[in-house]
Amino acid sequence: MSDRIAASKTADKGATRADEVRLAIEEDIFLGRLRPGTRLDEESLAQRFNISRTPIREAILQLVHAGLVEKQPRQGAVVAPLKLHRMVQMFEVMSEIEGLCARYAARRMSEEEKQALKRLHDTSKAHMEARELDAYYAVNRAFHEAVQAGSHNEPLQEIARGLFARLAPYRRYQLNHPSRVKDSFTEHDDVVEAILAGDPEAAYTAMRRHVTIQIDIFTEFVSIMGGNEIQ
Amino acid sequence: MSDRIAASKTADKGATRADEVRLAIEEDIFLGRLRPGTRLDEESLAQRFNISRTPIREAILQLVHAGLVEKQPRQGAVVAPLKLHRMVQMFEVMSEIEGLCARYAARRMSEEEKQALKRLHDTSKAHMEARELDAYYAVNRAFHEAVQAGSHNEPLQEIARGLFARLAPYRRYQLNHPSRVKDSFTEHDDVVEAILAGDPEAAYTAMRRHVTIQIDIFTEFVSIMGGNEIQ
DNA sequence: GCTCCCCTCTCTGTATACAAGAGATGGACA
DNA sequence: TGTCCATCTCTTGTATACAGAGAGGGGAGC
């Protein structure tokens, strides 16, 4: 399994082993190979990546501060087992943060940025109509990132990215919902229209509603699954 | 200088050396003993705290992820030298985040929390009238933290704390401004009134304005100092 | 005299060895 | 048979040793 590092896409020149390990574990969490609650044993990880425990520890620390992993002194690290009420709170914040991004984007996006956003949106329409779920999901993410970048506020983007990363492990449950893709597209439509028109409040409202709806879907999913801790 | 760790206030049972070092460096940054741009040499720090480089490295990593320190692979760590435009962006986000906290607080604070907030506010009034600047500053921080806690949204509080930590090194410039304390108190007054009355939008507006004013003061300070990078 | 290249030296990144705490396990006693 | 305590083991935290990358200085060439 030590080929994992070599397989890492981001072979940055200056990157350290710790960075590579972090990316690999991050991906494992995102893709569900490492599920919330899973113990991260330093020694096993060291063997898996064929390196010493030192860079493993650094990688885990980075993940702890990204909120993806929890760690108690002398008691090891586990993939963050999100409590339901905390997830709802995170979605709540996410809706405000993304709404804020949209508001700023409506005011600050250049004409080029607006056209790029429009193109992304059109691409997603094609994927929707072709029922290409994975592709739609990918473009959906790019769409949100474009709006975040359009805010022209780096700290805000960092916050949005951080929240997205922490919610990502759970997001895969969402687009399975029947007709969700079509609704999602319609909501995006409102956002794009408001941003292109340069209407900050409409953009804020549209984006905030779009993300808020995800909370409903998520809680619905959870109520079906039962339990107040998702593992 | 190795007594620094022993002198640490938070002698938590489970805390590691790395945590203690992090707290110590954090305090140095907040109090201006370590100024933005200062190089953090692992070996010197290890000698200063009389421990090995390993926990020092972990502490630095934690500070990097808190945004207080910047680090390039193989080129060491420096206390984050904030660019002016980034600082303004951070204040911009901070005003929205704190406004959001106030909005939620107006809806969600219990009667006990509201009374505690009122008491804090009364205390700060006493300090203002007695012209006790440091005491006012301390209570001011407690006031903001109380509102944040009143939001009953942990991720939101974490974001607010993170931004506060990153802005703290520069905040000391602010309350020196003539009559700032009195204005600050008046603005707090509006916030308290709105929260006690349970008026979310008024609370949001009042808090947002309170923080936004700090941007003006800050940019004024910078324009006096000149330069677009603060060291 | 200036510039460019190479060497050296310092500091970071990684490996490995050691220490210490937390949980598990087994035995003894009630 | 159940519970409590001691010990033991396993994992994490820390120290130290080693390796390798960058930066800086000195010398050679132009």
Automatic annotation (TrEMBL), chains A, B:
Q: Keywords assigned by UniProt?
A: DNA-binding, Transcription, Transcription regulation
Concerning SMART domains, the annotation shows: FCD (SM00895), HTH_GNTR (SM00345)
- Listed Pfam families: FCD (PF07729), GntR (PF00392)
Listed PROSITE patterns: HTH_GNTR
Classification via InterPro entries: GntR_C, TF_FadR/GntR_C, Tscrpt_reg_HTH_GntR, WH-like_DNA-bd_sf, WH_DNA-bd_sf
Tell me where on the tree of life, at the top rank, the source sits: Bacteria
Family matches, as Gene3D superfamilies? GntR ligand-binding domain-like (1.20.120.530), Winged helix-like DNA-binding domain superfamily/Winged helix DNA-binding domain (1.10.10.10)
The record, for CDD domains, names: WHTH_GntR
Annotated HTH gntR-type domain residues: 15-82
Q: Which residues form a coiled coil?
A: none
The keyword Transcription regulation is annotated on this UniProt entry? yes
Q: Is DNA-binding set as a keyword in this record? A: yes
PANTHER family from the UniProt entry: TRANSCRIPTIONAL REGULATOR, GNTR FAMILY, TRANSCRIPTIONAL REGULATORY PROTEIN
Question: Which protein, by its recorded name, is this?
Answer: GntR family transcriptional regulator
Name the species this protein comes from: Azospirillum isscasi
